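As described in the Methods, two query proteins were run sequentially through the folding procedure within a single session, without resetting any intermediate state between them. The first query and its resulting structure tokens are shown here.
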Amino acid sequence: MAEETKKKFKYDMVADQILEEIKRGRWSVGDKLPSESELVSEFAVSRVCLREGLKKLNVLGILKIVQGDGTYVNEINFTEFMKPLLSLMSVTENDIDEIYMVRTLVQGRACKMAAQYKTPEDVEYLDKMVEQMEDAIAMNSYTDYALVDRKFHNKIVHMSKNRILIMIDETFREIVDGYVARINSDVTSIKKFMLDHQQIIYAIKDGNEDFAEQIMQAHMEYSRKILHQTLM
């Protein structure tokens, strides 16, 4: 048992050392790590220990091991890393408030930043999304409406140009989608949502950052309340 603990400690240390070198900029995304022999010599460990350390970083998505070629620094995708953990979550009605609190913060701040960093192309895209949502409503196609609604909110988050906000939004997207589908089938709610969407676009166009944030937050809060009603 002592020997097994010692080995685990060693490969953990190797993994930590390699990760530290990546953080320092010695190796960047896409770079190929030195050969196994070179790394064994550098870290003064056995090949088995090195391989276990590399395997740990591979499982975490930090490294990519290509058989017959070598080991490369992988682009760390926070969203993909979190998905297995989120799939284990047992979301209850009580969790909705917490989920929507996060979504309100992310969407609200992203909307504020979208008003700051908008481009004519961004605004044109949002206008087209609203038109498509209106067309979907006219055809009573709430599935199509939901798809465009998702694109609308996704676009606003990406307009923030903040990678962390984007990653958080994408991480919670799969959980949120199931709930959004419930409220996007209610005609009265959808009419209110469309008014919100129009106001959001107006605020973004005008560069009114604070108002854009307030409207989006109010939009999220209304969504939360309607969702609770559908679950009653």
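Immediately afterward, the second query was submitted; its sequence and tokens are:
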Amino acid sequence: MTTAEKTMDEFEQLLEESFAKSNSVADIVEGTVIKKEQDGYLISVKGAKMEAYLPNKELSNESEELEIGDTREFYVLKEENNEDSMLLSLKRIAFAQAWAQLNDAKIQGDTILAKVVSTVKGGVLVDIADLKGFIPSSQLRTGTPFEGLVDTKIEVKVLEADPKKNKLILSQRQAVAEQRDQVVDNVLSTLQEDQVVSGNVVRITDFGAFVDINGIDGLLPISEISWQRIKHPSDVLSLGDTIEVKIIKIDNELKRISLSLKRMGENPWQQIEGQFEEGQVVKGTVNKVTTFGAFINIFPGVEALLPVSEMSDENVNPFNLFKVGDEVSVLIKKFTPKEHRIALSVKDINA
């Protein structure tokens, strides 16, 4: 290899190294203060083609002054290009360190603490070390953001931490799931069926509600919320409510518990035994109207069915005869409280 060829190889190697050392937005670089100007400082950064610039507004605080020759770490606000020099910041170093810690937490799967600052469409905003993060509704333990979360501190997992996009996405649900795995066996060992426990409503769905019992979520089915017919669990419960419930089933294999709220009170079907009989005419309130009949509440927590065939001797439309809330007189045609069934009739009242 000739001297010229060797020199060219060395030049290409140095050129490649200079490109490899280019710094991007959000990088942390080491630089030395070389000059003070009216609105900022000129900083020498190794590998940069031009002197970088640190505006006064990007100092750690307004009263801070740098000495010529000081060597510090800086945050890259703007990349260097052919026309403009690199723009630096000192006050964002703390932010950068926070981003780095969050990225480490993501990689290592650590759980961190976040303060909920507001609810927004689709989730909640949280604060972590002065950085704003977002927890989507799908990653909330409750499944739905609600005002009771604001100003509370919750444990979360980091799903995404991208300082360049200023994007911090978190999950409370993953943190809760991990905690549940750690405590579930210990909690289940302290519980037993028919035990009354206190818990907080942490999630409401169409089919029921989930209640936090000592760190694990128990299912409260809609059928176990009230003896009376309800359209949705939210008719009775709200997120954050503290309620007493009875444990009706513990599945140690699946590590699940089933709960009941309605069984905290007396069973109304047992209460009505001896109070009603077949052939008796009683007053009731229409709870629901369907194509096949109407459900009538004849006692708190007790619904009886008035079939469409028992409304009239003629063909009728139940929706034309009844509406929810109507008070009606009905005849008890069949009474079997042990089976939770009562059949009614209107047409037979005057028969």
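The mean pLDDT is 89. We note this only descriptively and draw no conclusion about the first query from it.
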